[in-house]
Every structure is written in structure tokens, then in C-alpha cells.
Amino acid sequence: MSIAQKNQDREHREAIQELVDLLSHKYLQGKVKAIKLTMASLLAGGHVLLEDIPGLGKTTLALSIAKVLGLSFGRIQCTSDLLPSDITGLSVFDREENRFRFVKGPIFHHVVLVDEINRAMPKTQSALLEAMEERRVTVDGVTYQLPEPFMVIATQNPMEQVGTFPLPESQLDRFLITTDIGYPPAEMEKAIIRQGSIREKLEEIEPQFDGHALLACRHEVEQVYLGEKVADYLFNLVEATRSHRLVQTGISTRGAISLASASRANAFLSGRDFVIPEDVQKMLWPVAGHRLLMREDSSESARQEVLESLRVDIPVPLV
User: Fold this and answer.
1) Residue 258's CB: how many other CB atoms inside 10 A?
2) Is residue 269 within 8 Å of 224, Cβ to Cβ?
């Protein structure tokens, strides 16, 4: 790699870190973990599923990231009567031109917030599969490419709430990372309550980046070095999930690739051009937790217990 390329990589890493600091200190206080994981997913070319109760700032997170990166933003509010065409768009007949014309749906944006995804019917949920996996949609036999970069940030309500439909495993596997927002620290939440909503402040955010620079960062993330020892360590973690007594179906090969991609993105955000075992450990739960299919006699909390036990038991290589 040339000196000029190294300097550009360093400038991009520093710029991304400045954006994370700007969002976490000025607009999204108390949401540092969610910001970093969302940014890591965006750099790795993946999608994010936010699991939490309403009212904790999931929409604000998605909108602020789109604005600070200079990306277009679309929002889909899922309900039980939402149709696939409400997501992808549809063909309408233009009488003046005497032909059908395709009207793009809200999926044709760089950052798309799919709010309360598990309130949509399974058929509508499946309409997102092609878009998330192939970065394209097909309507009336015609395929339309989605803009690049492209990321879906979906929110999911707790399954105990009325009117929800569980996401199938194939849909969950399309999300690179799953995380929550959580409540901010007490003193910070009091300050947020005093200041009120920050929605109006979001309109003040000036783009600090653009899509071309972000795509360049994605290319740099792909070049982050993943050594043989770290790759072996990652594989050992993945393989151990497949034979664990509490797990019915462990992490697939695609899940392992996703963990490697997320680890590279975390290394990039940490200012390194190589992956260390701590990157894999940090991304293990966000990437792998929702991919584990537990046995029927296992509790929901067993997912995290399984991954934590593997993280402790499997030897960490010296690199």
C-alpha cells in the first residue's frame, strides 16, 4: 500500500470517529453502543435490527446517522395491512404517455428505517428479503437497482406486545447486527427530559460526509487484515455453537463471514488495519446472538449465556 493510500485510510478512520463522537456527545447522548454498532454495520455493508420498547430513540438514531453522512433517508411504518408494493413501489398507468410508469417506494433510499418490522405480515416482511440481500427489487418482471450505499435499520417490538409476528430465521439472518438502545444513565436521562425532544435539532445537522467517501471507507474495511490465528479463533467459536447442548442450530458459514466482516469494521473504527481477537469478542453477541436457534427447553437468556461461556472457554491466540 502506498504512503498516499495509508494517509487517506487514516483520514477516513479519523473522520468516521469524529462523526461517532459528534453524534454521541451532541445529538444521541447515552447511545454510544448503538451508534458504534450501527456505524460498524454500515461500513461492513450490513443491516441492523434494533430490539427495544418504543420511545428510546431508535428513529432518531437512524435519521441522525443518515443526515450526518449526507445520505437520503426513507421510513416505512409497518402495520398489519402494509402491502409489499408499499415498500418496493408499483407500476401505474400514465394516460398522457399511454404506458405504465414505475413509482419508486420508500425502499429506494440510502438509509431506510423499517419501523416495527414485526407488526407487518410475513408476506410483507419477505418483500424486504431481495432488497436486503441483493440490493435490488423486482416489480412486474423488471429489476431495479437500489442506491449505494444502502442499509436497512429495522426496529422490532418485544414479542409480548399485541399484534406482532415473529421474524423467520431467514429474515433474521439478513441482519448483520442486532442490538438494543437501552435507557440512558439516570443523570443523562434527566437532562434529556429537561431539554425535551431533539427532533428540531436534527434539522440543523450538516452533512459531514457523502456516499462516495463512505463507499471508499467500505473498500478500506474490506482490506483490513484478518490473520490466520484470528481466523482460526473465529472458526473455533462458530464451530463450538454447532455442538453446544443448548443449541439446536449453530452459526452458519454465512454467519461466520458476517462475524469476520463486523470484526474488520470494528478494527477500522478502532484505528487499526488488522483484526485482533478482541474485535471478534466484541462483535460476537451482536452478530451471532440472533442467529442461534435454541432448543425448546432453553430460556431466551440462554443465548447470551452460551456465547459468553464460549468466549471464556475457547483459548485466545496471541497475535
Assistant:
1) 24
2) no
Cis previous bond, 149, omega within 30: yes
Residue located via cell numbers 405480515? 121
For residue 208, the one-letter residue type is Q
Q: Which residues touch 272 (CB under 8 Å, ≥6 apart)?
A: 224
Specify the DSSP class assigned to residue 25: I
Domain range summary for the chain, segments of one domain joined by +: 3-205, 224-319
Question: CA of 132: how far to CAs of 12, 125, 152, 258, 285, in Å?
Answer: 26, 11, 7, 14, 21
Cβ proximity of 70 and 147 under 8 Å: no
Residue 275 or residue 204, greater confidence: 275
Nearest C-alpha neighbor of 251 from the set 195, 307, 204: 307
Select from 213, 259, 234, 227 the least CA-distant residue to 44: 259
| CATH code of the domain made up of 3-205 | 3.40.50.300
Q: d(Cα 111, Cα 65) in Å, to the nearest integer?
A: 9
Whole-angstrom distance, CA of residue 1 vs CA of residue 90: 46
Tell me: the pLDDT tens digits for 202-261? Answer: 777 888 888 888 999 999 999 999 999 999 999 999 999 999 888 888 999 999 999 999
> Which CATH class for the 224-319 domain?
mainly alpha
- Give me the DSSP letters along 93-131: EETTTTEEEEEE-TTSSSEEEEETGGGS-HHHHHHHHHH
- Report how far residue 227's alpha carbon sits from residue 282's, in angstroms, rounded to the nearest whole number: 17
pTM of the model: 0.89
Containing 254, the helix (H) or strand (E) segment is helix 253-269
Length of the chain: 319
Record the cell numbers describing residue 239, joined without a space: 464451530
165-180 per-residue burial string, b: 16 or more CB within 10 A, e: under 16 = bebeeebebbbbbbbb
Please report, for residues 161, 229, 236, the alpha-carbon distance to residue 316 in angstroms, rounded to integers and kept in the order given. Answer: 41, 9, 10
3-state secondary structure of 248: strand
Q: Give the C-alpha separation, 17 to 111, whole Å.
A: 19
